[in-house]
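Dear U.,

Please find below the material for section 3 of the report. The protein was modelled together with zinc ion; I have listed the sequence and SMILES used, followed by the predicted complex structure.
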Amino acid sequence: MNINILGCYGNIIGEYHSTAFLINDSILLDAGTVTEALNENQLKKIKQIIVTHTHIDHIKGIFPFVDELVMLGDYSVDLISVKQVLEIISQDLFNNRIWPDLTMIPSEKKAILKLREIQLEKTTQIDSLNIKPILMTHTVYTVGYVVREADRGFMFTADTGPTKRFWEVAREEKGIEFIIADVSFPNRLEKFAKISGHMTLSMLLEHLDRYELNDRPIYITHMKPIFKDEILGELKKAKRKNIKPLDQGATITI
Ligand SMILES: [Zn+2]
Ligand SMILES: [Zn+2]
């Protein structure tokens, strides 16, 4: 499996892009950054978009992407998530007010955008991948994911505050090569992190201790660009070789 990190920051400032991971050239996991990072030929290959939640920094790339698909002609894309997330997408976004209802254009059957519902904690096959959504703790309904191809995979917390089930699943799952985990704020802003449904590095370390996951490779993601240096300084001080920042533009192969 190839995972191309199109964006991995908690805000969009200059060269810092928001969350989107392109898997095997054809499946997006979140769509915070799409047309900014990919050319026409790469866009044509995307057939599925798996969504964690409806915050704009995770879905804003869908709008220019589907607009481009309309221009390119005979293309369609599946938008995949749990019911609660898809409901917000259809009611609040593709509602003919914020953006045209592309689930009905040109017709319901041939629509450019097809909503595909998956079930919490049930494994669903998407091409060569198996994905399993897990309920997270955020300010809006949010799922993290276990993503596998054959017997190897990774997990992604999406945006989350302190949570239990995800880390329990991380302990149970076999063949997980790494976990991508939200660390949005520096330690001094723990209160703000909790209010906004995010994590600091010390909160993440507490979870790894509590669930005995200290040996797992972790990539931290969703740093607010303004706090990047401060968070990286904290990471250096923590002296944890298994924890690294996710590298925007990099491709991870497992
Ligand atoms: Zn969010
Ligand atoms: Zn976010």
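For the text of the report, you could mention the following: The longest helix spans residues 62-72.

Regards,
Y.
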